[in-house]
Amino acid sequence: MSYSTQEQIISIPIPAKFRETALEFAQEQPTQPKAKQVYVNTLAVLVVNSYLEMLDITTELEASYSWNQYGRLMADVADLLLTGVGRLECRAIRTGDRLCYVPPDVWDNRIGYVVVELNKTCTEGKVRGFLPDIKTSQIDIEELQPLERLIESSHLVHLRQWLEGIYKSQWQSIEELSCKRTPQVAFRFRGVRGFQLDSSEEVWKVIEQLFPHRSWENNLPSELLEKMSGNQVEDVESPHHNINSISVTDVLAQLLKTTEDEEKRWKLAETLWTIEPKHPAISARRIMDLGMQLANNPVALMVAILCKPDKTVAVLLRVYPIGNQSYLPPGLQLAGLYENGEPFLEVKARVVDNYIQLKFCGEFGERFGVQVSVNNANITEHFII
What we know:
By secondary structure, the protein is an alpha+beta fold. It has helices at 16-26, 32-54, 69-74, 147-154, 159-162, 174-180, 183-187, 200-210, 222-229, 245-258, 262-275; strands spanning 10-13, 59-60, 79-82, 86-94, 99-101, 112-118, 124-131, 138-140, 157-158, 191-192, 195-196, 285-289, 299-307, 313-321, 333-337, 343-348, 356-362, 367-374, 377-384.
């Protein structure tokens, strides 16, 4: 689909201090072609940064790869980090160009691509348009989408960026939320279906339940099995076996990589985030306190994602009671929404539910909404995988 961008073009003056910064970065480079590349990349980033400042969209210029001396030297990079959102790639063309080159270096880990047209004297930059993703090394500027799509994208929750540790401020870790709330919040996340995971033995009981008769060994690499052989794992049923917590963590992380069964994977993830919440294998999990936005009902929405071996993404949505509440308000509803707002999954809380949840799978680039409602109050959050 082609979009008319003529009315969307925004002109940004390029002051002398922008050109001085670009020249400084360019002079660090070992060759003239590399220096020219860094010069125009830097101007494109500064132009887009100025445009976003006009829209009150916060950025972290110095945290961008393009502002790192080593990053500029090693790659053709022109990213701008949007606070809590992700990295936006800013690619430059010159006046009269109809195609914009995008190097393979930046095809991943981006929330989108903006094309900036620089005039011959580099005193003006025109923000020509936006694309949320690309699959080729060249962008035809006739295919660019209106800049409203960029603004819209900046307000989405980009779940892929959670894998890089980039979160919007309202999305907290469980530990951060429990510090602001009460000890009951943290305690509520300590068990996994009847197990209180306060020892390695309890963790091994979960593993043995999921993989009976030591079948978990089939999923582990030989080096990990050799490492564990010195820790006396002959009898996982015995309370005296000597498996340290590091080995248990390694085993859980490896099983997450190799297990295809979705239910097993989520239970492994729950177990791992209970004993080591900051482990990189399950770091993409955040929670939002909805109380103030949901008529002061003390509930929180948790969202977690797991990358799958087939390159799709498993998504878990949960709503928990927080504060001093043990159960959710009866009738509270959690719904997953298509991009058009129609629900594709729904669940309602009963009288004694201490949480409700939805699970589904999607592909990178897919959008969906999450709505939590109770009585006449509701809140909807919009996501892109």
